[in-house]
Amino acid sequence: QTYNGAAIIAMSGQECVAIASDLRFGVQNQTLACDHKKVYRMHDRLYMGLSGLATDAQTLYKRFVFKHNLYRLREERDMRPQTFASMVSATLYEKRFGPYFVEPVIAGLDPEEGHAPFIAGMDSLGAMETAKDFMCAGTNSESLLGVCETFYRPGLGPEELFEVISQCMLSGVDRDALAGWGAVVYVISKDQCIARTLKGRMD
Hints:
about 200 residues, alpha+beta, five-stranded antiparallel sheet, 4 helices, about 35% strand
């Protein structure tokens, strides 16, 4: 889990949700790139962050796209966030004896619940945990949790949510040598999704 390094935060607001990841791609202490996004789009109102081994993250992303496309063909609609989270959990649990070394974080809006925000995280075996406020994953998730508990408050609008999650990400990776080097933030509201790239410390 600490081979490539990662930091991912999902946070809920008032009819909006945000998910952010750092941009570093490295092999242990050697940094190879600083444009490696760890957040993947499933559809307009559903995004997933994958921390952990980068090769497993890419493999799983392609499997989830495949399964979501099959669902879309059969049901003629996009997956609800809860349904997608259950599918991710089942896919990881299938391989529990030789697991994928990833920790997914899922963030989305549920159109059938009045665009209510949905946030979930799980371990590499698919043991799922949902949250009403925020969810963190990565090589130094304790630091991320600490700043999120300090800065978060309920009922944030899209712009306030962006500001809070950005500060949490930039502060949280300061004490993590394996993550950082910039960040990307996606803020999903019922009528749009805004992606912004943040500059971070490069040391």
